Automatic annotation (TrEMBL):
Residue ranges constituting the CoA carboxyltransferase N-terminal domain according to the UniProt record: 27-261
One of the protein's GO biological processes: malonyl-CoA biosynthetic process
Enzyme Commission identifier(s): 6.4.1.2
Molecular function terms, GO-annotated: acetyl-CoA carboxylase activity; ATP binding; transferase activity; zinc ion binding
Nucleotide-binding in keyword set: yes
Protein name as catalogued: Acetyl-CoA carboxylase carboxyltransferase subunit beta
InterPro entries recorded: AcCoA_carboxyl_beta (IPR034733), Acetyl_CoA_COase_Trfase_b_su (IPR000438), ClpP/crotonase-like_dom_sf (IPR029045), COA_CT_N (IPR011762), Znf-ACC (IPR041010)
Keyword Transcription regulation tagged: no
Organism of provenance: Candidatus Segetimicrobium genomatis
Length: 261
């Protein structure tokens, strides 16, 4: 039914759509802490720290290395090491399928990037873990890369700078993954015997077997503000000890207050 002319004013006008522009995806990033929308380029300029609440967004392995190394100085090592499937592990999908998906999503072959570079003109061996790759879990390849990095640092008498970001040992590799705790601990321990500095940088999160092995063996231990740092999860600990844990437990600030960094 046609509206009377006197009521035409309540009709919604047909605005032309030709002048509208689609906003490209990925221009904005939402802060997980304060929910502020931050222009992504502005966030990158601030080294992925929220300008409103100072929340530190997670960095990729490549981002971590780019922050500390002199431009153009990085040379990657051991990039040809790729994970195998020694147990034929299958959960919701085969382990090789998970590896392929992680490689496609992150653009890296494994959960760490290792190499050499310069920091303020001085040589250093570097290793940065990629949390986006199966939670930065440590399997045989990640453990081998840590061990080789330590050996390279010892051979060159260059400091080892290692960025940890991991949920722990990789369950798909079973006992082979657990073996890496001892292997990496021994490897970085030898640096102390040689008098070679080991700088451990704990990124968000550093937990499980990585926290229980090489991450806390540094001569100098640094941490990202607000990073989750610990061995077992909060819920597991509370159920085990049957006590409520304090607020801020397993944060970088809590660990600093108690002398672990």
């Amino acid at each position: 039914m046609e509206l009377p002319a006197v009521l035409n004013w309540i009709r919604r006008p047909d605005y032309p759509s030709s002048g509208r522009r689609d906003v490209p995806a990925g221009l904005w990033s939402k802060c997980p802490r304060c929910a502020t929308l931050v222009y992504r380029k502005e966030l990158e300029r601030k080294l992925r720290v929220c300008p409103r609440c100072s929340y530190h967004h997670r960095l990729s392995a490549a981002d971590s290395l780019a922050l500390v190394l002199d431009e153009g100085s990085f040379e990657e090592h051991d990039e040809g090491l790729v994970p195998d499937d020694p147990l034929g592990f299958v959960d919701e999908q085969p382990y090789p399928a998970r590896i392929e998906e992680a490689q496609r999503r992150t653009g890296v072959p494994e959960a760490s990037i290792t190499g050499t570079g310069a920091i303020e003109g001085r040589g250093a061996v570097v290793d940065a873990m990629e949390f986006g790759f199966l939670g930065g879990s440590m399997g045989a390849v990640v453990g081998e890369k840590v061990a080789r990095s330590a050996e390279r640092a010892g051979g060159r008498r260059w400091p080892l700078v290692l960025f940890s970001a991991s949920g722990g040992a990789r369950m798909q590799e079973g006992a082979l993954s657990l073996m890496q705790l001892a292997k990496t601990s021994v490897a970085v321990g030898r640096l102390g015997e040689l008098g070679v500095p080991f700088i451990s940088v704990l990124c968000d999160p550093t937990t499980g077997g990585v926290a229980a092995s090489f991450a806390f063996q540094g001569d100098v231990i640094l941490a990202e503000p607000g990073a989750l740092i610990g061995f077992a999860g909060r819920r597991v600990i509370e159920q085990t000890i049957r006590q409520k844990l304090p607020d801020g437990f397993q944060t970088a600030e809590f660990v600093l207050e108690h002398g672990l960094i």
